[in-house]
């Protein structure tokens, strides 16, 4: 993507490590950065797009970063093995949490093992290898077992914290946050790039009618609409990622087990029960209300299976807890995303911001 951007005649690319934002009277004027040679330089611009990733050290002055780390991914690359369904991503509903497999070349498959919490078994003393071989490997499809063990023995194990952070920006003249520096969701659904690219399209359309970006205060006021216009895609994918992760994690609670199985069987029904959630997952149907409908349809489907053909008091109680559990999963995520911006964006004044006068 950098090479593509650099190939354009009106783009000049400078590469370095940004160490700080240049601020003057509450307005961001540019950045200070260090080149590969160690030289400290400054770059000035009327608008600075800050997108320095999940470990951002620049976002603190631009947003309220409430970062949650629900789990970590342990990554491996499996070689010369066949997935159960070629050219498809796979989610293994393992205990205690999901395992992902997806092809990255004609001979390689990436495996991401989700480990709940922030404390991982040590790679250095062999605890991680033992955990993967004894706890994880027995739960895998047989055709992936040998390649998985081989990848562990090669020792190329990588780890990455899975971060979640709702968008909570401080509109700042001269700067705009984007990407994982601004908003993160659990990577189970791989929605990060979809949200980032969608945000780029929203920002492009906002900036297109402007011929001058030099009035930082007016521009910042205008770009407040960005935070509302991005919500349909971003909040749908964020909410689905958080909700699916919680549903797919194993639990000793019978109601949670029923919800997990109901979700799997609901998707297995095919037709709209499959294409609907996949359209939400991919950003092709950016409608938060549609997400809520499907989520509670899964819960009702689970309750229906419990009560048919003959309901009992115990099954009715599990069904009630299933609905309650589903609500406790999705409503906090929706609250963090912002109910008004998600479902009633046209009632937000910033939605109607006009471009500043030329």
TrEMBL record:
Keyword Transmembrane: yes
Keyword annotations: FAD, Flavoprotein, Membrane, Oxidoreductase, Transmembrane, Transmembrane helix
Gene Ontology terms describing biological process: response to hormone; sterol biosynthetic process
GO cellular component entries: endoplasmic reticulum; membrane
Subcellular localization, as worded in the UniProt entry: Membrane
Pathway stated in the Swiss-Prot or TrEMBL entry: Terpene metabolism; lanosterol biosynthesis; lanosterol from farnesyl diphosphate: step 2/3
GO terms, molecular function: flavin adenine dinucleotide binding; squalene monooxygenase activity
InterPro entries attached to this UniProt entry: FAD/NAD-bd_sf, Squalene_epoxidase, Squalene_monox
Transmembrane segments: 291-310
Keyword Ribosomal protein annotated: no
Catalytic activity reported: squalene + reduced [NADPH--hemoprotein reductase] + O2 = (S)-2,3-epoxysqualene + oxidized [NADPH--hemoprotein reductase] + H2O + H(+)
Gene3D superfamilies, A to Z: FAD/NAD(P)-binding domain
Known EC number: 1.14.14.17
Names of the cofactor(s): FAD
Domain Squalene epoxidase, residue spans: 45-314
Pfam families: SE (PF08491)
UniProt membrane topology term: Multi-pass membrane protein
Recorded family membership: Belongs to the squalene monooxygenase family.
Job of this protein: Catalyzes the stereospecific oxidation of squalene to (S)-2,3-epoxysqualene, and is considered to be a rate-limiting enzyme in steroid biosynthesis.
Protein's name according to its UniProt entry: Squalene monooxygenase
């Amino acid at each position: 993507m950098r090479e593509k951007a650099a190939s354009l005649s009106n783009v000049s690319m400078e590469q370095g490590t940004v160490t700080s934002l240049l601020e003057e009277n509450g307005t961001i004027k540019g950045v200070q950065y260090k080149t590969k040679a160690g030289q400290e330089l400054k770059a000035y611009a009327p608008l600075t797009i800050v997108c320095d990733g999940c470990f951002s050290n620049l976002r603190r002055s631009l947003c309220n970063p409430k970062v949650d780390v629900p789990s970590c991914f342990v990554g491996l690359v499996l070689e010369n093995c066949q997935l159960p369904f070629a050219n498809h991503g796979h989610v293994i509903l393992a205990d205690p949490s999901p395992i992902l497999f997806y092809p990255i070349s004609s001979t390689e498959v990436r495996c991401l093992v989700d480990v709940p919490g922030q404390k991982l078994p040590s790679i250095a003393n062999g605890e991680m290898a033992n955990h993967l071989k004894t706890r994880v490997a027995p739960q895998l499809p047989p055709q992936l077992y040998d390649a998985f063990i081989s990848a562990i023995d090669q020792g190329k194990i990588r780890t990455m914290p899975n971060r979640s952070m709702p968008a909570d920006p401080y509109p700042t003249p001269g700067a705009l946050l984007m990407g994982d520096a601004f908003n993160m969701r659990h990577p189970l659904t791989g929605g990060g790039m979809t949200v980032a690219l969608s945000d780029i399209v929203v920002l492009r359309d906002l900036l297109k009618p402007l011929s001058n970006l030099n009035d930082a205060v007016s521009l910042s006021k205008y770009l407040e609409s960005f935070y509302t216009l991005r919500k349909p895609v971003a909040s749908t994918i964020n909410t689905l990622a958080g909700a699916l992760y919680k549903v797919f994690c194993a639990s000793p609670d019978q109601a949670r087990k029923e919800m997990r199985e109901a979700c799997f069987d609901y998707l297995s029904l095919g037709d709209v029960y499959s294409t609907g959630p996949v359209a939400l997952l991919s950003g092709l149907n950016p409608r938060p209300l549609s997400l809520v409908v499907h989520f509670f349809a899964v819960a009702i489907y689970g309750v229906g299976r419990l009560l048919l053909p003959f309901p009992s008091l115990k099954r009715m109680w599990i069904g009630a807890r299933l609905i309650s559990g589903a609500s406790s999963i999705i409503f906090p995520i929706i609250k963090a995303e912002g109910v008004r911006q998600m479902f009633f964006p046209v009632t937000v004044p910033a939605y109607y911001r006009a471009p500043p006068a030329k």
